[in-house]
Amino acid sequence: MTVSIQYFLHNLLKVFQRWYIILPCCFCKGGTVVKYISIKEASTKWGVSIRRVNLLCNQGRIYGAYRLGSVWAIPEDAKKPKDPRKTNKKE
């Protein structure tokens, strides 16, 4: 990667980190606007720790989540992945 591209991406990340706190982050994807939330917002919404949401993102278990530098962007309508350790016991 050239220096100019790295510089551009670094500045884009700074702008994104600064503005996504103030304004909801929206991107146009396939003609529809998709709103994204941060890991902290997702952890509050799903009732799990920030570390757990980060781990789910790193494992690719949250559909539509992607990384911008060190920040994860999670679609606002993303569902919490099921825990594979839990099973339904029939009695």
Question: How would you describe this protein?
Answer:
It contains 3 helices and 4 strands. It has a 4-stranded antiparallel sheet with strand order 1-2-4-3. The chain is of the alpha+beta class and 91 residues long. α2 packs across α3. A hairpin with a 2-residue loop joins β1 and β2 (32-37). The chain starts with a helix and ends in a 16-residue tail after the last strand. It has a domain at 24-80: Multidrug-efflux Transporter Regulator, Chain: A, Domain 2 (Orthogonal Bundle), CATH 1.10.1660.
Number of discrete helical segments: 3
Structural class by SSE content: alpha+beta
- End-to-end Cα distance: 58 Å
Largest sheet, in brief, is: 4 strands, antiparallel
Shape: elongated
List the helices and strands in order: HEEHHEE
Helix content: 25-40%
Strand order of the largest sheet: 1-2-4-3
CATH architecture of the domain at 24-80: Orthogonal Bundle
Tell me what portion of residues adopts beta-strand conformation. 15-25%
C-alpha-based Rg, rounded: 16 Å
Give average pLDDT, whole number.
76
- List segments where confidence is low: pLDDT < 50 over at least 5 consecutive residues: 18-24
How many beta-strand runs? 4
CATH topology of the domain at 24-80: Multidrug-efflux Transporter Regulator, Chain: A, Domain 2
CATH hierarchy class name of the domain at 24-80: Mainly Alpha
For the structure shown, list the relevant keywords.
elongated; Multidrug-efflux Transporter Regulator, Chain: A, Domain 2; alpha+beta; 91 residues; 4-stranded antiparallel sheet
